[in-house]
Amino acid sequence: MHDFLSHTGNLILFPRAALRNLLADPRRLAFGFCGILTLSVLYIIAISIALARNPTTLPLVFPVLNIPTEKYYAYERLFLLPVAVASVILHSGVVRLIAKPLGGKGKFEDLIALLGFAYVLIALTMGLPDLVIAVSGWQVTAVGPHVVIGTVWFFILSLLAVKETEDLSWGLTALAALAGFLANASVQFVFMR
Fold first, then answer.
1. Vertex 162, ends 161 and 166: CA angle to 5°?
2. How much is the pLDDT for 107?
3. How much is the mean pLDDT over the chain?
4. Beta-carbon neighbour count of residue 175 at 10 Å?
5. Are 112 and 28 in contact (CB under 8 A)?
6. What is the pLDDT of residue 61?
7. How many CB atoms lie within 10 A of CB 171?
8. Chain centroid to CA 161: how far?
9. Measured between alpha carbons, how far is 159 from 151 in angstroms, rounded to an integer?
10. By C-alpha distance, which of 156, 186, 184 is closest to 36?
11. What is the pLDDT of residues 52-111, one digit of tens each?
12. Whole-model pTM?
């Protein structure tokens, strides 16, 4: 736990060095999964609190899935973790598919570790504010600035993760990172509200 918190603190203060250090840690895959788990558990708690306060809490954006909007969050708690894991796997796979023919030197597992661990930043920038919103009972009518900040920060971490693992030029790194990020975002768009 101490090392996980240490890596998290470094990710906030020195993101590129933190990713480089995590890449060298033999427990990087476990830390990557812990990042995904942190985000998922935080959102399961926030959703549960929101539903306890108002059982018919509706998503801000109409769901893509064929689930009644008034029951969407009750179901989302069940698929939140598997979707988070799948989105990191897809993100990593798309990056590797693009980076490898361009001379990328990375490994699929290393990308999963770094990108999964980066979810801890989404937990801090998006999950905690959403937890506060759930506890307070505020009625949300628009996407908050914390969502934009969290999304931008995660993209920056994605870019740095690709740079550290693949060792490509910044231009090629940006290409691979953007493609992986968009693949991840497409999964999030379908499932998460």
1. 125
2. 97
3. 93
4. 17
5. no
6. 79
7. 9
8. 13
9. 12
10. 184
11. 988 888 887 778 888 888 889 999 999 999 999 999 999 999 999 999 999 999 999 999
12. 0.91
Tokens of 12: 């906030």
Tokens of 111: 């990308």
List the Cα angle 134/127/106 in 5-degree steps: 160
Distances (CA, A) of 98 to 25, 115, 126, 175: 25, 16, 29, 8
- Two tokens at 33? 């999964």
CA 108 to chain centre: 17
Q: Give the span between the Cα atoms of 38 and 81, in whole angstroms.
A: 10
**Identity at 47, one-letter amino acid code:** I
Cα separation values, 3 from 9, 10, 138, 158, Å: 10, 10, 35, 21
What phi, psi does 67 have (nearest 5°)?
-125, 135
Cα–Cα distance list, 191 to 47, 79, 98, 174 (Å): 14, 8, 25, 26
Whole-Å CA distances, 20 to 103, 138, 162, 169: 19, 39, 11, 17
Residue holding tokens 């920038």? 125
Phi, psi of 104 (to 5 degrees): -60, 145
* Token pair recorded at residue 137: 């009972």
